[in-house]
Amino acid sequence: MKKLLLVLILLLLPTLASAQDAAAGKDKAAICGACHGVDGNSTIPQNPILAGQTARYIYLQLRDFKEGRRKDPLMSPMAANLSKKDMLDLGAYFAAQKHTSQNSKGDSSLIAHGKDVADAAICTMCHLGGFSGQNEIPKTGGQHYEYVLKQLQDFKAKRRTNDAGNMTAVLRTISDEDLKALAAYVASLD
User: Fold this and answer.
1) 80 and 29, same structural domain?
2) Which domain holds residue 73?
3) How big is the CA angle at 159 (ends 156 and 165), to the nearest 5 degrees?
4) Taking the mean position of all CA atoms in its chain, how far away is CA 181?
5) Is residue 11, in this structure, part of any structural domain at all?
6) CA 42, CA 19: separation in Å to the nearest integer?
7) At residue 23, what are phi and psi to the nearest 5 degrees?
8) What is the largest CA-CA distance in the chain?
9) Same domain, 118 and 78
10) Nearest by Cα to 37 from 115, 121, 130, 101
11) Is the pTM of this model over 0.85?
């Protein structure tokens, strides 16, 4: 029995060693603050709000930047030297922060049209109600309009492909005007 317990402990050690540590993530996130805000609430419209995002999603995006599956002239070099532990810790830290919505209310008719686009595309099947996200699907509700629109455009044009083509498949039939409405709707959510 003691041998079995020892074997189980030895098998679990690597898992425990790679556990997420939000406190360590806070220290590592200091450099992220310039673009994403100290607590992950970016005030720069082109940069995503990381606060309240799922830890899993943040980890996967950092990994994709590091491994070249997602490219950005600023983020790719930032992620290049991160270890798996660094990425897990950063994910844990930003997931633990409170998302302070930067939502833009904008044109109410555009937002209403965007809701219709979202409903027709069944966006909440993956992104859930309020575009709150889950696991590997990002929280997009309350993100900056400019950031959301760019991501939608990049997925549609296949400039961003690190999601196995899911978003591209959904967006391929949505017009550019409807993408703007969809982005306005998503940005208006809390």
Assistant:
1) yes
2) 20-96
3) 60
4) 20
5) no
6) 26
7) -65, -45
8) 68
9) no
10) 101
11) yes
- Could you tell me if residue 166 is inside a domain? yes
Q: What are the residues whose beta carbons fall under 8 Å from the beta carbon of 184, sequence distance 6 or more?
A: 104, 106, 107, 110, 111, 114, 145
> CA-CA distance, 100 to 18, in Å (whole number)?
29
The pLDDT tens digits along the chain (190 residues) read: 555 444 444 444 444 445 678 888 888 999 999 999 999 999 999 999 999 999 999 999 999 999 999 999 999 999 999 999 999 999 999 999 999 877 677 899 999 999 999 999 999 999 999 999 999 999 999 999 999 999 999 999 999 999 999 999 999 999 999 999 999 999 999 8
Which one of 96, 116, 147 terminates a domain? 96
> 135: exposed, middle or buried (C-beta count within 10 Å: 0-12, 13-18, 19+)?
exposed
Domain-terminating residue out of 54, 71, 96: 96
Residues 87 and 148 both lie in one domain: no
Number of domains within the chain: 2
Residues 71 and 137 in one domain: no
Domain CATH code at residue 30: 1.10.760.10
The C-alpha angle 35, 171, 186, rounded to 5 degrees, equals 50
Q: Look at the block and give the residue holding tokens 């990425």.
A: 87
Could you tell me if residue 126 is inside a domain? yes
- What are the C-alpha distances in Å from 189 to residues 23, 52, 111, 156, 183? 29, 14, 10, 22, 10
